[in-house]
Amino acid sequence: MGHIFSILDEQGSETFFVGQWRIHLILGKGIHGKATYREVGIRDALKKGDKRFVAITSGADGTNIYVDGILMKSSPRFHLFSMNEKPSGKIVLGNSSTGGEYWTGNLLSLAIYDRVLTGEEVFKHFPQHIHRPKKSGEEGPVSFYLFDEHSGTLAHDSVGGHHLLIPSRFKVLKKTILVPPWEDFRFTRSYLMDVLTNILGFIPFGFFFSAYLWMRKPRSIFRLLLTSIIIAGCISLSIELIQVYLPTRSSQLTDVITNTLGTIIGVILFVKNRKS
Predict the structure, then answer these.
(1) Binning pLDDT at 50, 70 and 90, where does residue 276 land?
(2) What angle do CA 51, 54, 56 make, to 5 degrees?
(3) 29: closest CA among 12, 50, 14?
(4) Contact 156, 149 (CB under 8 A)
(5) I want to staple 172 with a disulfide (CB 3.0 to 4.6 A). Which of 3, 99, 195, 269 is the partner?
């Protein structure tokens, strides 16, 4: 799921985010102390090639999501912030804090208010949302970005001083190391395909490495299996640790486990083939 807009806390965890999954708009709220989110969404809101004006308001009465000035979703029990919570931290556009959920759309403008807009105000702003607003008291936004620089290292705030940094090189704000299986497990086709690929990818290693060890010096099946597992585990662990520093990759303990499982299957196939 591509993250369009995120607010991070001081520890680098996402307080909430606006994202896209397929053509659906997703709004996620982080749960304190957990790696999961509460989510609400709108189906078919972000079709390819269409421009959309999305407005999200959240206050004591819950959260409302407007698309092109029309209220599409109202969630009375979903709050982006508690009543005593003041938003703070960093704003990240186009990716998550871990760097693994990038978004490929175009963000044409962004306005941030320090108050809850009414439905009438959202509808009034919709036809003029591409124009530069004027800040007058509480009527205007506290930050507004047109993203019309086309060069440089800053996205300028038109009404305030909260300019956004555009780094010359992408930098992951929150590096994850060996995420445990119970945190990254998803019962989806893509996840299961990743697991299967990791297993199949190390079966040849287990088979041919066992054959190499046996040709050098025949040994017991237990020693053959143990040596292969240790070597495969070290290789897989090294790969996952290297991936911590690659922005488009993630470091997962599941990969180490599945790679090791593939090696075990390869060793077993070699032993059975040798006996036959």
Answers:
(1) low
(2) 170
(3) 14
(4) yes
(5) 99
Residues 6+ apart with CB under 8 A from 193: none
Give the distance, in angstroms, between the CA of residue 160 and the centroid of all CA atoms in the same chain.
Answer: 29
Task: Tell me the C-alpha distance between 259 and 205, whole Å.
Answer: 10
Model confidence pLDDT, tens digit, residues 144-160: 999 989 889 999 998 88
For residue 25, the cross-strand partners are 20, 42
Which residues are CB-contacts of 62 (< 8 A; sequence separation ≥ 6)?
Answer: 74, 75, 76, 77, 78, 79
Identify which of 64, 30, 67 has the alpha carbon closest to the alpha carbon of residue 45. Answer: 67
CATH architecture of 2-165: Sandwich (2.60)
Within a 10 A sphere around the Cβ of 263, how many other Cβ atoms? 29
Task: State the DSSP H helix or E strand holding residue 25, giving kind and residue range, or none if neither.
Answer: strand 24-30
Spans of all domains in the chain: 2-165, 181-275
Cα separation, 185 vs 42, whole angstroms: 24
Q: Is 200:262 a contact under the CB 8 Å cutoff? A: yes
List the one residue out of 90, 147, 145, 81 whose CA is nearest residue 114: 81
Q: Which residue has the tokens 């060793």?
A: 267
Interior/surface letters 222-246, b for 16+ CB within 10 angstroms, e for the rest: eebbeebbeebeebbbeebeebeee
Query: Residue 235: its pLDDT value, please?
Result: 94
